[in-house]
Amino acid sequence: MNVAIIGTGYVGTVTGVCFAELGHNVVCVDVDTAKVDQINAGIPPIHEQGIPALLKKHVGKRLRATDDYNDAILKSEVTFICVGTPSGDDGRIDLSIVRSASKSIGKALAERCVDARYAYHVVVVKSTVVPGTTDDVVLPLIRENVRYGGYGGYKGYGGAEEVVGVTMNPEFLREGKAVHDFMNPDKIVIGGDIRAVDTVARLYKNILCEITRTDTKTAEMIKYANNSFLATKISFANEIGNICKKLGIDVYEVMSAIGKDFRIEGQFLNAGAGFGGSCFPKDVKALIGRASELGYDPLLLNAVIRINEEQPMRMVKLLANRIGDIRNRRIAVLGLSFKNETDDIRESRSIPVIRELLNRGATVAAYDPLASENMREVFPDVLYCDSAKDALDGADACMIMTEWTEFGSLDREFDAMRDVVVIDGRRMVSLDRGVYDGICW
To answer: Which pTM was predicted?
Structure first.
């Protein structure tokens, strides 16, 4: 099938290269011409395992990029909306990019529908949007612009309702493992009418996975419920961990035991500094905001966010308890990305930690295998080091914020510190000397 992908961020790029790998012809669209040029040169616009090889394999064959909606959509059968939906200060998502993409898609489809050979087309919302957005925002904008678009307008062929189908197909991708997750999903969810859902389902026919067919609003809610539940598991583990800390109990032993219960399962029970990234914090807050609009106070979800926001400050408190006044002390911060195997710092738990350290007058020496340049845009005055050893050299204390594998092998590197004081937010090391303190253990 011929597929257009609007947006070349994490979701759009992964979706594009994976559909090419499945044998479809893909055109990626982005208003950022630098990204377009990168993709056409085979250079990944994001850091993600597996993307470089797939770009090299398919660019110029099954995959290309453009900044022209008409070019991408004219001969395509399906268009995916994979643009960002950033959160506002109140937690509610910003739909301005989705709205803009929907209008542009509608105008391109108006031109496309002049030719009856290209009459039916399905638009797929893959961006994460709150329940009701696909039907109440995306669909009206597309159909309005199909009828009255600026590219010749709609000419006939049965009405906009018959030439344009709209579905919701949420993504369930882990950063760092997104290509694997796309090609080996535990679920594929498609919401919409029968004809549109059947069309989108054809794209996944070579993937062995049951497809959940539902309506658009339910598909949107499945995404939010999925991420909110996983975030809740993390905050639950952290809550229990905070209690275990006061009781002198190893929370990892507790969570290992309860995770053996098939009703609970062991993933997302690692207590520590909390969750970050582009999905969990934003999605939980967005669902809270939507619930509030409906007149419902989501007590559990509010608690999930509150626990998560307090965890980093608990680490700073542990540090102060161990070394006293932080002012003019050199603090090594190991790990800047929100998780390992990515350079993404969005909602990283190291951000509030570094901010608090700087506010208290500390000198911060930071190291991350991938994310230093991204964090430099947030904290330009931090000393960014080329290795963990360099960051630890002469440090008064160390805070471990991300579960990079290389941190687990650190040992003698800590001897370069002025005092061996380690506050671990991810249970990465085991020290037989100095001061070692875990946030939840």
So the answer is: 0.93
Tell me which of 18, 113, 279, 398 is the catalytic residue: 279
Q: Write the single-letter amino acid at 205.
A: K
* Distances in whole angstroms, Cα of residue 311 to Cα of each of 178, 233, 254, 354, 430: 27, 14, 19, 13, 21
- Write the burial class of residue 433 (CB in 10 Å: 0-12 exposed, 13-18 middle, 19+ buried): exposed
C-alpha span between 87 and 402 (Å, rounded): 23
Please indicate whether residue 279 is annotated as part of the active site: yes
Superfamily of domain 2-214: NAD(P)-binding Rossmann-like Domain (3.40.50.720)
Q: Which two tokens stand for residue 377?
A: 């845009």
Which phi-psi region, left, alpha or beta, contains residue 410 (left: φ > 0; alpha: ψ -120 to 50)?
A: beta
Residues of the chain with CATH 3.40.50.720: 2-214, 246-441
Q: Which of 394, 397, 385, 393 is nearest to 431 (CA)?
A: 397
pLDDT of residue 163: 83
- Residue range 88-143, pLDDT digits in tens: 877 889 999 999 999 999 999 987 765 555 578 999 999 999 999 999 999 999 99
What's the distance, CA 104 to chain centroid?
A: 25
- Give exposure, 83-119, as e/b (b: 16+ Cβ within 10 Å): bbbebeeebbbebebbeebbbbbbbbbbbbbeeeebe
155-196 per-position pLDDT tens digit: 443 455 568 999 999 999 999 999 999 999 999 999 999 999
